[in-house]
Amino acid sequence: MGIFDFFKRKPIEQKRKLEDNYVLPYFGQIDINNLEEHYRSNFELNNSNIKTDLNFEGKSIEKNKIEQIEAFLKNATDFDKKNKVYIEKDFENDIGETEAYINFYLEELDENELKKIIELDNQTKSKSIQLLNKLKLIRIGFYPDNKYGTSYFTTFDYSIEIDGETSNQLLVVNTDEKGNLDHITWES
Question: Taxonomically, which superkingdom (predicted)?
Answer without folding.
Answer: Bacteria
